[in-house]
Design a protein that fits this description.
Elements lengths: L8 E5 L5 H10 L3 E5 L3 H8 L10 H9 L3 E3 L10 E4 L14 H10 L8 E4 L7 H12 L9 E4 L18 E5 L2 H11 L6 E3 L3 H31 L4 H8 L23 H11 L5 H27 L8 E5 L14 H11 L3 E5 L23 H5 L3 E4 L8 H7 L3 E3 L11 E2 L1
Helix pairs in contact: 7-9, 7-10, 10-11
Amino acid sequence: MQSESGPTTAGIIGLGYVGIPLAISMHDAGLKVIGFDVDQDRIASLNQGKSPLTHIGDAAITALVGGGFEATDDFSRAAECDALVICVPTPLSKMQEPDLQFVTATMDALAPHLRAGQLLSLESTTWPGTTDEVLLPYVTRAGLVPGKDFHLVYSPEREDPGNPDFSTGSIPKIVGGTTPACLNAGLALYGRFIDHVVPVSSTRAAEMVKLLENIHRSVNIGLVNEMKIISERMGLDVFEIIDAAKTKPFGFTAYYPGPGIGGHCIPIDPFYLTWKAREFGVHTRFIELAGEVNAAMPQYVVDRVVAALNRQRKALNGSRVLALGIAYKRDVDDMRESPSVTVMERLRDGGAHVDYSDPYWKTFPKMRQHRFDLASVAVTPDTLASYDAVVLLTDHSAFDYEMIQEHAPLLIDTRGKFRHAAHVIRA
């Protein structure tokens, strides 16, 4: 139960890329942590001290379990928790509109077990107003009053899987409360394990902060992806251009192009704001244009592959193509919204025989919208030589780039790893 110094037991709903690092940080700060999920395999794995994430080792999970952590699907145990933190996915529907099914399902499961004295925090990225319009009614229907006998806050996650320079505790945390008392409770909770907690005026402001951060990245990535296309047409190396531009000590931030955008945030979050903006009669043309540019990049890569094969008097139909890297970014096992998968699908749809190699995925994972029945191919000189084209999609550190450059008969580079190789096709 909660002590005078604050919460003693925390419940984390959603044990993934956000929830697991959060659980470790809370545990290290002295909180008892209960993890909630609906994935039975993940629950069993965690309780056995096994990590489902490659960038978090088994030793960290073993220490977590040894310190009293439990993973469960029994949501009645939420009543044991002084603080409840929701870290579930917020995807888009087929119509590119917000899909809060995981948030509402979580609240349905928690609602019978909410009690006075608790703090509820939503960390999932969403549109401004979600905490007030979706979560608050659950609290009031339970007979609880935010700011008096219950606290409700929004604090957007800022995890960057695989980034060695930042951890959950060292990344500044935004917190917005439904009332001033709620805000103070949220600051007290996160202040126990976050080095720098940043208060904002409301939950809506905190929700908008998260969208701005990710839309900023989406727009700038869209710009640099377009610059890549222009540079290629002009015979220029966009990576040389970027590296030279970033020598300016002010007014420029370097972003780098690729085969598209991936991860749970950048491809999805802008659409949460464009959807909500329509309620206020605003057409977010700039944001949507960036999304269109980024969404078109996988096809640009496919077109470059087709053109490269044509110059060798080969058709895409019937060609053997090896995709290097299927994760959405370097050195992680995160497949969410990976543009690599879209490139592979379109190559396959064009008649190519497509294989992949990725050090983080021995077999192609099950995905909601994509299906490949494939196992990762070992990258050897003989293997490389057996393909008509090799496409670098995710620049994992584990790849032997010197060997790849030497033995791939046709190499298409979407990440700028082979900048000084004359025979490499940039895409």
